[in-house]
Design brief:
Layout (H helix, E strand, L loop, with lengths): L23 E5 L3 H12 L4 E5 L2 H7 L8 E4 L7 H10 L6 E5 L4 H9 L4 E4 L4 H32 L4 H11 L4 H8 L3 H15 L4 H10 L6
Helix pairs in contact: 6-7, 6-8, 7-8
Length: 223
């Protein structure tokens, strides 16, 4: 198995791992032998394994974990894989999840993919299949992290705005002219133009079109 380079930055507010840190995979399985086997197998490729014996244990530590691929068992006591998947989806985690099962149930596999899993891995685990799926997972994890970083950076920029400046921009991004924005906000057109100019200066942008792109990057535009 090839060594993977992994330099994912955590979401805002989470501790950043060292850039020299080895890539990491999270294994969620109550079978200790499976965890030890994966730890040995992946360790030979320079990939660290952090194991959890169930969904509850993983969620308890989630706020302190850097993004990375997850190997998730379908059947466990408490919060099992099929219960954990929608929780991760609701939290918009974006961490690639590979489901593991000893049962090979097609219906379960299909449901897992619908809930956001990127693929399905049958036990006993085939090292070649595992390598292929983890290559895919690390690629997706890097893309997700880059997207998250872009979103975080955009939101940091937008936080520079005052409430009034943001209100003005929201109306202007809908295609309204200054006079319309002034009427909606109960301001003079000149005041709206002042807020517009100040907002663009703070954001270091030159047009409302660029503001729209920034809000899109921040995922703050209403559908």
């Amino acid at each position: 198995m090839a060594r993977h380079e992994h330099s994912a930055d955590p979401p805002s507010g989470e501790p950043a791992p060292s850039k020299e840190a080895e890539p990491r995979v999270y294994v969620i399985d109550d079978d200790r032998d499976i965890c030890k086997s994966l730890e040995f197998l992946l360790g030979t490729s320079g990939i660290a394994v952090q194991a959890f014996d169930g969904g509850a244990a993983f969620l308890e530590q989630l706020g302190r974990l850097a993004p990375g691929p997850i190997l998730l068992d379908v059947r466990m006591p408490g919060i099992d894989g099929m219960h954990l998947l929608p929780i991760l989806k609701d939290r918009a985690m974006g961490w690639p999840v590979i489901m593991m099962t000893a049962f090979g149930e097609i219906a379960v596999a299909v449901r897992a993919m619908q809930l956001g899993a990127i693929d399905f891995l049958e036990k006993p685990i085939n090292p070649d299949v595992l390598e292929r799926l983890l290559d895919k997972a690390f690629t997706l994890a890097a893309a997700s992290t880059a997207e998250q970083q872009c979103r975080n950076n955009a939101r940091v920029q937008i936080k520079k705005l005052s409430q009034r400046e943001r209100e003005v921009l929201q109306i202007l991004m809908e295609g309204a002219v200054n006079k319309v924005a002034a009427h909606q906000l109960g301001l003079s057109a000149r005041t709206v133009e002042m807020h517009r100019a100040n907002a663009l200066a703070k954001l270091e942008l030159r047009s409302i079109a660029q503001v729209v792109k920034l809000f899109q990057a921040a995922d703050l535009l209403s559908p």
